[in-house]
Amino acid sequence: MTDRKRGRSTLPKAEARRRYVEVGELVALEQIRKDAKLLDRGATAVGPFARLDANAVAARDGKTRGAISNLFGSQAAFQAATLALALNAGEWVEQVKFPAPADFPTAEAWFDAVLAGQSARGPVHGAKPTVNDGFLWALWLSTMPYGLWSEQVSRPSMKEYVQWLRRLERIFTQALDHFGRALRAGTTINDLACAVASLIEGIWLNQCLIKHHPCDPAEPIATLLLRSGRLLWRGAVAPPAAP
Questions:
Q1: Are the C-beta atoms of residues 38 and 49 closer than 8 Å to each other?
Q2: How many CB atoms lie within 10 A of CB 105?
Q3: Contact 173, 180 (CB under 8 A)
Q4: Which residues contact 44 (CB under 8 A, 6 or more apart)?
Q5: CB within 8 A of 58, min separation 6: which ones?
Q6: pTM score of the predicted model
Q7: What pLDDT digit, counting tens, does each position of 152-165 carry?
Q8: Is 151 exposed, middle or buried (0-12, 13-18, 19+ CB in 10 A)?
Q9: Domain spanning 90-236: which superfamily?
Q10: Rounded mean pLDDT of 123-146?
Q11: Are 198 and 146 in contact (CB under 8 A)?
Q12: Which ranges in the chain are annotated with CATH 1.10.357.10?
C-alpha cells in the first residue's frame, strides 16, 4: 500500500504534531459539549465532581462508601449532589461581610476597604484546600466550560451572579447616601455594581495563579484589585461637592 493510500501525513513532524494538537483541542471541546448535554439530562457529573471518590469522602468521617450509598443511593448520585451544591452558593453571597461606611472618614477610604476585603475573600495560589468563599469559587470555576452548553450550569450561576450584583447595589447605595456622594451623570448603581463584580472575579482568576502583582513582584496581588477598583470608582462617582 502506498503512503498516499494509507493517508500518511506529508507534513514535517513539527507541523504534524501541531496539527494533531489543534484537532485534539477541538475534540476536547466537543467532549465538553457532549458531557454538558448529559449533565442536563441528569446522566452525569462533570469536571472534578465526576472523579469524586465516595470512599475517600466517607473515610474523612471514619466511614466507608456504604454510608454515602445509604444516603444518596450511589456514588454517581453523590457526585451530582455535590456539583449541584457548588452551583448554588446563594447562601454564601448573603453571608459576605462588608465594612461599615460609618467607620471611615471618606467614601474612597471605605471603598478601598471593600476591595481589600474582596481580595482577601478570594482564592489564594498554593494554599491548602479548605471550604471557604475563594476555594468554592475556584471549584465553581471548574464547571464553567460546561456552562457554554449546559443550562444546569448556566442557570444557577447567573442567578447567583445577579444576587451578588443586588448585594453590591445595596452597599454602594448605602455608602453613597452616608457620604453624601452621587454617581456621575449617565451612570447607574447597577453599572457600578456590574463593573466592580466583574473586576473582582477577573482578578480572582489572577489570584488562582499568583500571589503578587503580575507586573510588579514587589506588590501583593491585592494591589491589582485596589488600583483597578479606584479607577472604576473615580469614573463612576462624582467628586465631593465643594464646601
A1: no
A2: 8
A3: no
A4: 35, 38, 50, 76, 80
A5: 64, 65, 66, 67, 68
A6: 0.88
A7: 999 999 999 999 99
A8: exposed
A9: Tetracycline Repressor, domain 2 (1.10.357.10)
A10: 94
A11: no
A12: 90-236
